[in-house]
Amino acid sequence: DKILVEVRDLKMHFPIHAGVLKKRVGEVKAVDGIGFDIYEGETLGLVGESGCGKSTAGRAILRLYDITEGSIKIDGHEIGATPQPELRKMRPTMQMVFQDPQASLNPRMSVAAIIGEPLDEHTKLGKAEKREKVLSLMDAVGLNRDFANRYPHEFSGGQRQRIGIARALALNPKFIVCDEPIAALDVSIQAQVVNLLEDLQEEFGLTYLFISHDLSMVRHIADRVAVMYLGRIVELASRETLFADPKHPYTQALLSAVPEPDPWLEEKVERILLEGDVPSPSNPPKGCNFCTRCPQVMEICREIDPLGQEIAPGHQVACHLYKDTEESAA
Ligand code: SF4
Ligand code: MG
């Protein structure tokens, strides 16, 4: 399978300033050295509790930020250090669907203008061609063409998310980061939007990074799943493996907390309740990031940061429980 997105050692640290002189007193390690591949046409789910760094990771991969460190290759192009003006050329390839369609759509622009904006910026389409393209995008996402001249407030939340999706599709992207695309929507319409994203993926050959805190959702849509905790990826596996045989204690706890009714949950014996809060990403614990809350913590965990290792083909875990050689600590 072709790798479309390749992320290596990605770090996104934000400085913390304090006092009247705004002295730099530390940094928030929102994303602290993550890496994975995303294959063309697949959906990689990125899950974790709020504040784990998954949204920041998604934005960093699209270079909505200047990243602290690391390599990002999209369709063979290294963009980790590309200056913002040059990144413009890559924008059509990679797009984002945001969590809150309300906040991401300009209330003073008509639907046609919103969907057409990327076309104005990146193409030289004539007026009629542009209109036709906008209308065909509205068809693709299931919006009535007759509403092209209406404004965002005249639509429901689900329809507004369709507008956001149409805009993301305008430039025929290959890769789309979906950041909690249904979290702000009514439960009754969440499934419709997810089904739409799946249909569009098939129709246009899209590759998704699907960010969500909702494991049932990810289990439905993702081919593979990466689990994030405190700026790191602690486990990555195929959907089947991750849900049937989670290895990292954090993944096990997350899965045990998924509310029923999910048929696979019936096999689970008990809930794993985690003690304490997620530590601050400005002051992560020494050793394993999860050692302050891990039910299986060992002495070594408080000293040495576990490296990610492949414990079976395609199944990566960063945890000392699965370390089989001395060298991997080096
Ligand atoms: Fe728990 Fe230790 Fe594994 Fe970290 S390395 S998840 S503390 S067992
Ligand atoms: Mg978030």
TrEMBL record:
Q: Where in the cell is it found?
A: Cell inner membrane
Q: Which GO terms describe its biological process?
A: peptide transport; transmembrane transport
**Superkingdom of origin organism:** Bacteria
- What is any one of the record's Gene Ontology cellular component terms? plasma membrane
Return the InterPro entries for the record: AAA+_ATPase (IPR003593), ABC_transp_ATP-bind (IPR050319), ABC_transporter-like_ATP-bd (IPR003439), ABC_transporter-like_CS (IPR017871), Oligopep_ABC_C (IPR013563), P-loop_NTPase (IPR027417)
Q: Does the keyword ATP-binding apply?
A: yes
Domain ABC transporter: from-to ranges: 16-255
One matching Pfam family: ABC_tran
Q: Does the keyword Acetylation apply?
A: no
Q: Which GO terms describe its molecular function?
A: ATP binding; ATP hydrolysis activity
> Which NCBIfam families does this entry report, sorted A to Z?
oligo_HPY, PRK11308.1
- Spell out the protein name for this chain: ABC transporter ATP-binding protein
Query: What is the originating organism of this protein?
Result: Celeribacter ethanolicus
